[in-house]
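Page 37, continued from 36.
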């Protein structure tokens, strides 16, 4: 290709990716270009979903697959440029695997190896190992490899007798190898290609066959539910922008933070953690709303006969905002990814004969799935350690503490405040390394907090254990 040809291609790429408009908008708002591209892509999903409802729902499956592929690939190109081709290469590798080894015992380990290997090589060669995190092709590739691995696992489950399958495996098992068009449509579905949520290929194929419209409906009766998710997502975007001004991440790199009184630092971590969480809550709600408009998350009807659309929610918002335990927060957060990890990884490690070891391996894989930064591994180590300690302590104190103290109202509010402080601080504490990523950066913050989050839970476990041991010894005497 000549220099002039390269210049022409660059100009065409600038037009198709809207470089000038994106840069102007990013400069005006004060956020990075990649964040603006992602947000615009998520918003674009809504008119695309309405077009799908009006023109394609219930029609030719082939046309639906092509529509999803075109929309998803363009979204990928808009965000990542020519790097969107990585998704196609990985997809073809797994398609060939399904043709060669569908239902074979070795197909699932091979899928994990191919998909995780491709992602890790992407991490190693991308700027994710640079000074700052950026949204790049590996961001959506994290979502993609779970879909592709899930397809291979569902094919393997479909090859086994139904009586040997667990209830959740029966829901997603498939007996027929997907065509290349079906696999691409599933992977590039525009509502979930960039940031999820996860869904099985069996659910996707049910959608294109018109299986989620509900009784007597030509299209899914899901507009109100989908737009509600959008409104909630925009509310959390606004919350994020406000909290970003109050507790910017850059403040961790200024001497003033380290001069603060320890309780004030803890309060900063709590508010800053809410800023970080608002970003994820917002994006997941907006993405889920797109899926709901298409009908993909259909989950049957409630007791009044109204359709429900919650089978793909990535955060159980009420449970998350009202939880009084770290386990409760974790259970309500990033639900679809956690469900995938339990179903396709942790439960398939039962042959190890140790539940805690299976959990540890799953947490380690989850950290690797996010990236190669040490910050990810520290965050998931903290999560594993805190939840394990919390479970141990509560099991030892079972029957000795109540959910709320009786008595005056102010004592109740004091208890609620304590539990909220406990949850929000330690959750924000774990997020420090998840956001700062690099060892030297997050260690500066943790050392200024005297490693409270690293030490408190093991020490609490030790205290409870020794206290119970003393009481047991006295009882024997």
């Amino acid at each position: 290709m000549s220099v002039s040809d390269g210049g022409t291609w660059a100009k065409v790429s600038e037009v198709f990716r809207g470089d000038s408009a994106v840069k102007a908008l990013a400069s005006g708002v004060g956020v990075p270009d990649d964040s603006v591209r992602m947000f615009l892509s998520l918003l674009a999903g809504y008119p695309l979903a309405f077009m799908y409802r009006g023109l394609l729902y219930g029609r030719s499956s082939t046309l639906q697959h092509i529509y999803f592929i075109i929309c998803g690939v363009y979204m990928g190109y808009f965000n990542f440029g020519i790097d969107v081709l990585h998704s196609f290469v990985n997809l073809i590798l797994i398609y060939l695997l399904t043709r060669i080894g569908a239902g074979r015992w070795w197909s699932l380990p091979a899928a994990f190896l191919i998909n995780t290997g491709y992602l890790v090589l992407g991490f190693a060669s991308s700027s994710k190992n640079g000074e700052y995190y950026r949204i790049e092709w590996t961001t959506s590739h994290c979502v993609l490899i779970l879909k592709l691995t899930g397809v291979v696992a569902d094919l393997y489950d479909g090859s086994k007798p139904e009586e040997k399958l667990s209830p959740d495996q029966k829901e997603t098992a498939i007996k027929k190898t997907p065509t290349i068009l079906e696999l691409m449509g599933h992977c590039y579905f525009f509502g979930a290609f960039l940031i999820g949520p996860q869904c099985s290929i069996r659910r996707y194929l049910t959608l294109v066959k018109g299986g989620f419209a509900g009784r007597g409906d030509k299209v899914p009766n899901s507009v109100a539910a989908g737009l509600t998710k959008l409104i909630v997502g925009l509310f959390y975007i606004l919350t994020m922008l406000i909290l970003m001004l109050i507790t910017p991440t850059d403040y961790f790199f200024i001497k003033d933070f380290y001069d603060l009184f320890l309780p004030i630092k803890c309060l900063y971590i709590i508010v800053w953690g809410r800023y970080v969480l608002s970003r994820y809550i917002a994006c997941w709600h907006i993405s889920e709303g797109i899926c709901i408009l298409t009908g993909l998350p259909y989950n049957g009807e409630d007791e009044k006969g109204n359709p429900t659309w919650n089978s793909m929610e990535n955060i159980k918002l009420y449970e998350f905002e009202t939880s009084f335990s770290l386990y409760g927060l974790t259970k309500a957060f990033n639900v679809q990814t956690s469900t995938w990890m339990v179903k396709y990884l942790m439960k398939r490690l039962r042959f190890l004969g140790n539940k805690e070891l299976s959990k540890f391996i799953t947490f380690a894989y989850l950290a690797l799935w996010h990236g190669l930064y040490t910050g990810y591994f520290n965050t998931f180590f903290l999560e594993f350690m805190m939840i394990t300690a919390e479970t141990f302590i509560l099991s030892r104190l079972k029957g000795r503490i109540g959910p709320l103290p009786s008595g005056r109202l102010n004592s109740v509010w004091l208890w609620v405040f304590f539990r909220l402080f406990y949850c929000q601080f330690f959750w924000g504490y774990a997020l420090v390394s998840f956001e700062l990523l690099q060892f030297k950066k997050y260690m500066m913050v943790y050392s200024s907090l005297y490693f409270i989050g690293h030490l408190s839970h093991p020490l609490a476990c030790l205290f409870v254990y020794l206290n119970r041991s003393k009481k047991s010894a006295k009882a024997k005497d």
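The chain is about 70% helix and 0% strand. Flag for discussion at group meeting. Confidence is low (pLDDT under 50) at residues 404-409.
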